[in-house]
Amino acid sequence: MTQVLFKNRHPDRIATMEEYRAGGGYDALTAVLGKYPRSKVQQLALDAVLLGRGGAGFPAGKKWMTVAETAPFPRYMVCNADEMEPGTFKDRVLIHTDPHQIIEGMVIVGYSVMAERGIIFIRASYENAARILEREIERATTAGFLGDNILGSGFSMKISVHRSAGRYICGENTAQINAIQGKRANPIQPPPYATEKGLWNLPTVTHNVETLACVPHIIRNGPEWFKSLAAIPTAAGTKLYCVSGAVQHPGCFELPMGTRLSDIIENHAGGMQAGCAYKTCLPGGASTRFLPKSLYDIEMDFDTMKKAGHRLGTGSIIVFDEKTCLVGATLNMMAFFARESCGWCTPCREGLPYMRDILARIEAGDGKPEDIPLLRQMSKYVWNSYCALAPGAASPVESLLTYFEDEVQEHIHQHQCPFSSKG
Amino acid sequence: MIPEDFKQQLQQHIAGVEHPREKVMDVIFMLQDRFGYLSDELLEDAASLLKMTPLEVEEIATFYEFIYRRPVGGHVIHVCDGVVCWMSGYTAILDHLRGRLGIDFGETTPDGRFTLLPTCCIGYCDRAPAMMINRKVYGNLTPKRIDEILEKLGWDITGKRDDTGSL
After folding, report:
1. How many domains is chain A built from?
2. How far is A157 from A155, CA to CA, in rounded Å?
3. In this complex, which of A89, A163, A316 lies closest to B25 when CB atoms are compared?
4. What's the pTM?
């Protein structure tokens, strides 16, 4: 299995800058700065079909192209390390594995859009990762890969680490822009898009940690190589899949994009825990839909998932076994989303707690048959909200009712949770 | 009131940037690390340093789970209640902590040493169930491991069991 982002992965330590360089690290930056036209960098990412790994799957090169040549300065490059999607921990593992590929990626993207200030936005529970990044930024600066006039190219860039204090909505691009500016982190509805008017109304390009880490490898080895890494011709690159829940060996695995779900669970996460049978999974964190059993062999890439009516999201697979109550699980997630709603718009602020309360009643054995159509209606209604938080929150509920309605019905008819004896 | 030397330290931290308010989170964390929590007085001091109104700082201070606007204990325990921890023994872990410390969520032990709070998924799902104490993560929790952690932090688990009678 080709390891690209995890090539220098050690069980007990972080790869050093020297190690990263010995494997070709910072060669891409040396090749690009002052030598490649910026459009060439953008074209390479576009040809490589590098899709945003934070969940949305937007083509990275296309995003950079939306920063107009004539756009004002300074421009900003933000690395989104806020990773707060339940079940997701790939960015944490990546930072703890080989952090310089993230820094190199930021400088290359910064160069392609002429952004001289980089900001890494990181969640409070990743304090260790924040310290690692600060230390390695320092080392990269001393080595001349960051700072003024990098490698004599005339391009300068500084990167700082911005610590957040724990709020899911800060992972949303426009909310994060507010947060960095020291404002309450409510989302801002585009247009204008952040690449036109972001931080302090200046062009701001934001990427997920994993997306940025792919960039130097694409520059160095070419788009065709990147595409050849995938398991299927319609996808590109590798993917950091996280697996958690009822499996033997939870963890983060770098596998070809489009690897089958069954392969990931059985051959990489060690299969199901002893005495557990697979029931379903959330394929890309808590804001994706439960997968029906019929899709157990699905190829895990943006396109295939979309065609099947699902989302790859962050590629973080939460595995549920037959003995785990899906109403209870959905209630847990809805409680999370209701708590994390920023409260800015009514459908989300009022709708999510309402859905949570209905689920709580069903789980407690007080559900009524009419609660099911009510939950379905609410799942649609919350799409009227301002940003993607509430539609994401509705995904587990809507899919629970679509694929596991029997389980919900059982709660209602038995006036108790049929799994409650599990303890 | 912030001591003069610490105030200068904060001012220096803010002076490095173009927009002082982008440092609001750092300033709050620095104050909190030093004084335990962000009191009304500290919030107003932070606002004047950052050239913000107290209300603007309050909007931020009340938005995040790792900013404390009320007094907390020396060790703040945040128990992850994410869905993976939930299915991996969260309830048993929480019950054990409640019993050992004799407190519930939002409470502090009478001696002011421990505060118990929830937190959403902290991104350690590969080591569920997990919790954070003073921003350090502890994973693969069992009642036994919790006892070890509490004892390491100087908590007499046997003594407290008698006090509270909850175990």
Report:
1. 3
2. 7
3. A163
4. 0.96
